[in-house]
Design goal:
Length: about 220
DNA sequence: AAACGCTCCAACCGCATGTTC
DNA sequence: CGAACATGCGGTTGGAGCGTT
């Protein structure tokens, strides 16, 4: 795998064995999810907590669907990606049984080729991990729908405000409503950034999906 | 049969944010 | 309030498996 930095030599790396899977599954069944960093100590697994979490979330969790993606799933992912960009966790949240990693892999290996889409970078979600390293900061922005229906976002409010201001010109030029969405982006001819106009993410998604289903 | 190249997915990394103390 | 720890995310990559030469 990648460089030795990070978890140290005390942790095993690479593919999980059946025995490791069994130990982790047994532990989660008994103790539940969470406190991943304690699992190696408690179980004797020579894996870091992050690795345990990832293995459970992406493979061992009973909710995870295996096997090939159906046409319907493909279609849903394509539409959601058009709406959300590379926000894989959000997309996966709308595709039952699929994880963000599965969706991301499927997009990168199948769907992007199928559609002939260049890997786009979200306007706000600007930098790759490499450029993040170079700049010393990750400018990723994440949308989250809260219980009260509002949207919270992992980014300084000032930056958010600036981004919105920055885009306001496009907003004025291109749209004032959901029926006439905000169009930005480079990979697609048009990209509608929900971040710029949605008061409520899930409501927005539902509306948007409806519009896309109707419009296609 | 061996060597090579390609595809695809599991897993890793670095970073940001959230939580606890 | 700040430090330490825990969790979650997206980008990237190693390598198993398969097809081709």
């Amino acid at each position: 795998m990648k460089g030795a930095a990070g978890n140290g030599a005390e942790h095993r790396r690479g593919l999980w064995t059946v025995e490791e899977d069994r130990i982790l599954t047994d532990h989660v069944k008994v103790h539940g999810k969470g406190k991943w960093n304690r699992i190696p100590k408690l179980t004797g697994l020579k894996r870091c907590g992050k690795s345990c979490r990832l293995r459970w979330m992406n493979y061992l969790s009973p909710g995870v669907k295996r096997g090939v993606f159906s046409e319907e799933e493909d279609d849903l992912i394509i539409r959601l990606h058009k709406l959300l960009g590379n926000r894989w966790s959000l997309i996966a949240g709308r595709v039952p049984g699929r994880t963000d990693n599965q969706v991301k892999n499927h997009w990168n290996t199948h769907l992007s080729k199928k559609l002939g889409v260049k890997q786009r970078k979200c306007k706000i979600n600007a930098s790759s991990s490499k450029s993040s390293k170079e700049s010393g900061a990750n400018s990723r922005t994440e949308l989250k729908s809260n219980d009260d229906g509002s949207i919270s976002c992992r980014k300084d409010e000032a930056e958010i405000h600036n981004a919105m201001e920055d885009s306001s010109e496009k907003v004025r030029e291109t749209s004032t409503s959901l029926q006439d969405p905000v169009l930005i982006g480079d990979g697609y001819d048009n990209f509608w950034d929900p971040y710029l106009c949605a008061p409520n993410l899930m409501e927005f998604l539902d509306q948007s999906l409806d519009l896309f289903w109707d419009g296609m």
